[in-house]
Specification:
Elements: E1 5-10, H1 15-25, E2 36-41, H2 46-61, E3 67-73, H3 76-79, E4 85-88, H4 104-108, H5 110-121, E5 127-130, H6 135-143, E6 154-156, H7 159-173, E7 180-181, E8 185-186, E9 194-195, E10 201-202, E11 205-206, H8 207-210, H9 214-226, H10 228-236, H11 242-256, E12 263-268, E13 280-289, E14 292-295, H12 303-322
Parallel strand pairs: 1-2, 1-4, 2-3, 4-5, 5-6
Antiparallel strand pairs: 7-10, 8-9, 10-11, 12-13, 13-14
Helix pairs in contact: 1-11, 5-6, 7-9
The structure holds nicotinamide-adenine-dinucleotide and (2S)-2-hydroxybutanedioic acid.
């Protein structure tokens, strides 16, 4: 059996992690032969630490053969020590009527300390996935602290948006999920995101040849995907958790698995597709080696798609301006 890998997870007593942690421990991300040590971070309040202890007791009671250890802590330097993956979930979720960007003020500063701690103590091969909202800009804040680790190791999750888009298209076309390919999210994890239906295919055929109702694609599909998070908050009273945990599993698995289909992650823009260099924008990527990705720059966009990408880019630039003090 291989040596255990260390997986640091923040916000470990929260609702996403309640769905996420058992799946990491049973091999859903890193494989059925790969032991893991979970290094779980929570805020230093008695209630949160007690809840974290309860989560660990339950994980223990699952008797997962692959779970070779659990570390519980309120200190970032302990949680991230020698970690091969850092999954940054811990932060405040939005409530009804809020936009994710409203969280920037409270959540942004979390990612300064955590980014610095990761850079200082994590394993040399460490990869980081940011889920805490607004995840693109929080990821930029964390990556800005990196001096040792390359900034390309810091990615933010737009896979939930991709999964939502795939599910909506499959339902409309009356086809299985597996029939949908190359459906990628551009830009911010926010209502401005652009799920690019124009370059996507259903059983190899362009989406617009199967779903010929362009008005539905532009006026129903695009906003439904963009506002799905708010719709879930409206219905559940709290934000998505199981689907978010599932998307994080897909995000990490896709990044670790060469030969995975095209997928969406938010990463530091190099100017591709017109995104401002230095913002964290979601783009199409292909995994080229375990943990290594390349942006697929081969897609072309018409004026409609270009205007959508310009709008989501403008929002990302605006978020960066809002937190410029956190980048010093
Ligand atoms: P939650 O409130 O249930 O749990 C968050 C946990 O994080 C809490 O237990 C809290 O104590 C902990 N926490 C807060 N600050 C922390 C810090 N500095 N260090 C460690 N832990 C900390 O929230 P949740 O539903 O699990 O959501 C977590 C975050 O994920 C939110 O910001 C939410 O908006 C975001 N989210 C993102 C996506 C996405 O697609 N990117 C999807 C769903 C949720
Ligand atoms: C989601 O998309 O479900 C999450 O980002 C939570 C939210 O605030 O919408």
């Amino acid at each position: 059996m291989p040596k255990p890998i260390r997986v640091a997870v923040t916000g470990a007593a929260g609702q996403i992690c309640y769905s996420l942690l058992p799946r990491i421990a049973n091999g859903a991300i890193f494989g059925k032969d790969q032991p893991v040590i979970l290094q779980l971070l929570e805020v230093p309040f008695e209630k949160a630490q007690l809840a974290l202890k309860g989560v660990a007791m339950e994980l223990e009671d699952c008797a997962f053969p692959l779970l070779h250890g659990i570390v519980l802590t309120d200190k970032a330097e302990v949680a991230f020590k020698d970690a091969n993956w850092c999954l940054l979930v811990g932060s405040k979720p939005r409530g009804p009527g809020m936009e994710r960007a409203d969280l920037l003020k409270d959540n942004g500063k979390i990612f300064i300390g955590q980014g610095a701690a990761i850079d200082a103590v994590a394993a040399d091969d460490c990869r980081v996935a940011v889920v805490g909202n607004p995840c693109n800009t929080n990821c930029m804040i964390a990556a800005n602290q990196a001096k040792r680790l390359p900034r390309s190791r810091f990615t933010a999750m737009t896979r939930l948006d991709q999964n939502r888009a795939v599910a909506q298209i499959a339902k409309k076309a009356g086809v299985p999920i597996t029939a949908i390919h190359d459906l990628v999210i551009y830009g911010n994890h926010s209502p401005t995101m652009f799920p690019d239906f124009r370059n996507a295919r259903i059983n190899g055929v362009p989406v617009q040849q199967v779903i010929t109702d362009e008005a539905w694609l532009k006026d129903t599909f695009v906003p439904t995907v963009g506002k799905r998070g708010a719709a879930i908050i409206e219905a559940r009273g709290v934000s998505s958790a199981t689907s978010a945990a599932n998307a994080l599993i897909d995000h990490v698995k896709a990044l670790n698995t060469v030969g995975t289909a095209l997928h969406s992650i938010a990463l530091e823009s190099d100017g591709s597709y017109g995104f401002a260099p230095g913002v964290w924008a979601s783009v199409p990527v292909r995994t080229v080696a375990p943990g290594e990705y390349q942006v697929d720059k081969s897609f072309t966009h018409d004026d409609y798609a270009k205007s959508k990408i310009a709008a989501t880019n403008a929002e990302l630039v605006g978020e960066r301006d809002t937190i410029k003090d956190l980048l010093k």
